[in-house]
């Protein structure tokens, strides 16, 4: 018998609601109120999310964020800034004690990301896990030079033809693993690079050039563009196969939804959370 996990497709939500729902699922799972859960979601409006430890003042061009009409939110997970635009975002909530979950963050990443790997296979792309090999690659993981998440593949990130195709971040709280990440269908590179501060125009140009060699969107690799619905189907099947589970659709109750909205109001809509020093 395959284990049954919950599946939530919450559609496109506000940035604060998205982060609040991930946080709520983590808490509910830690309290034994819900089984392990996989969630798919989108963003309305398109949003720049920054990692828990990032410094807004130093790295982010907020005028441009506003100019493009983007949402802005700080994630509860680490990592670098991500522009959530034409992408399928996923989150996985599962106990650290789950028999299939390795103890280390890196290995748990690999197990969870197996679901995404299967999804890429389903859409006809040959993805594989990146494993930093050289001293230089390893040291660049410890000391990321760029504020942009897709700038370098780290341990077990997914790569097609040598370029990163999905980025993920993980946190562990209350005995629960929360991993969420982006599966990019299309990318507007100029818009993305407009959102960051650079020491000079030359540095920006160099970084943008590097980025092109290191990251790629799904539709740049396919002759037929993948629609959002097709992506959802493929990656849902991918998670079922990769984690050897059955996903059962679920819709939040009114009470659950209200609880999420309250977390959004109290934390993710607050400037002191999003812009804290």
From TrEMBL:
Pathway listed for it is: Protein modification; protein lipoylation via endogenous pathway; protein N(6)-(lipoyl)lysine from octanoyl-[acyl-carrier-protein]
Active site (record annotation): 149 (acyl-thioester intermediate)
Protein name per its UniProtKB record = Octanoyltransferase LipM
Q: Which reaction does it catalyse?
A: octanoyl-[ACP] + L-lysyl-[protein] = N(6)-octanoyl-L-lysyl-[protein] + holo-[ACP] + H(+)
rRNA processing found in the keyword field: no
Entry keywords, A to Z: Acyltransferase, Ligase, Transferase
Q: What is its EC number?
A: 2.3.1.181
Q: Which GO terms describe its molecular function?
A: ligase activity; lipoyl(octanoyl) transferase activity
Q: Which InterPro entries match?
A: aa-tRNA-synth_II/BPL/LPL, BPL_LPL_catalytic, LipM, Octanoyltrans_LipM/LipL
The gene from which this protein is expressed is: lipM
Domain BPL/LPL catalytic: start-end pairs: 32-247
